[in-house]
Design brief:
Length: about 270
């Protein structure tokens, strides 16, 4: 109950601080992983929930492991749609099952150019962030969102080359805040589940090794606010959302799939209570 009250309050405060614009409707975009097929739309997709998994949309660099491909990033099928929407919906379903949080069954795509819409969605997930290339205006909007209480999970990127691409945009968002390595005893690893064995969450396409670009060592990093709250959770050399997406795939390692789900629960509960 405490978590539900906090998230309702966070949504109201974030929205009120930014004016009276209405939040965007739910919509769905084609995924860059369209070969897996689109997951069935849950029957209760129109029912609201106190917690919603926001999926951050973004323009991207032309170079990188996932080139832009045809079309407009605002219409999907580019890097931001990795593990979307299947991973987001699996996470939403399991978060509700493993916690007392009332979770909407479908994700919410969030475009920072849509007026004040981002402030209605405090919890955001972003994948393949080695390729993101936010404009200065988008970076300012995201910085304001996070400083006002938002939480961003940056996932699914590997190696020095992708880290460099990630930092180019991150430094536009927070030019004055360092990236810190989180200690094993940080509350985010223990708030719901005790995650003492934080193995690498692999990318399915690169099994059995599970990583690319020399990214064999998982890193757990963050950007903190002035009170020490995690605003940006950085799961470098990992693919948390692939673990969600592949949770029922017998070809994906089940320990790591379960670990990705427990991590997701911890991230959500931390975001709700901090």
């Amino acid at each position: 109950m405490k978590a539900l009250v906090l998230i309702n309050l966070a949504i109201m405060l974030l929205a009120a601080a930014q004016g009276t614009n209405a939040q965007r409707e739910w919509r769905e975009y084609p995924s860059m992983e369209g070969f897996r097929g689109r997951p069935d739309l849950p029957e209760d997709y129109q029912e609201p929930g106190e917690f919603v998994v926001g999926r951050l949309m973004f323009p991207q660099y032309e170079r990188g492991p996932f080139p832009s491909g045809p079309g407009d990033w605002r219409q999907g099928r580019t890097a931001w749609t990795v593990d979307y929407p299947e991973g987001d919906r699996t996470f939403a379903r399991l978060l509700e099952r493993l916690s007392t949080v009332n979770v909407r069954s479908v994700e919410q795509p969030v475009n920072l150019d849509d007026g004040d819409d981002a402030f209605f969605w405090p919890f955001l997930v972003s994948g393949v962030v080695g390729s993101w290339n936010l404009t200065d205006a988008q970076a300012r909007k995201l910085r304001e969102h996070l400083l006002k209480g938002g939480f961003l999970l940056c996932d699914s990127f590997y190696g020095d080359y992708e880290w460099s691409g990630f930092m180019k945009t991150l430094q536009r968002i927070f030019p004055d805040r360092p990236v810190v390595d989180l200690p094993d005893n940080h509350p985010i690893f223990h708030i719901a589940f005790d995650l003492d064995d934080k193995r690498q969450i692999p990318t399915w396409q690169y099994l059995p090794r599970g990583y690319r670009e020399g990214g064999e060592e998982p890193k757990w990093r963050a950007i903190l606010d002035d009170d020490g709250r995690i605003m940006v959770m950085i799961t470098f050399n990992n693919d948390i959302a692939d673990g969600w997406q592949r949770a029922n795939d017998p070809g994906y390692p089940q320990y790591e799939a379960n670990l990705s789900i427990r991590m997701g629960v911890n991230f959500a509960v931390y975001a709700l209570t901090h």
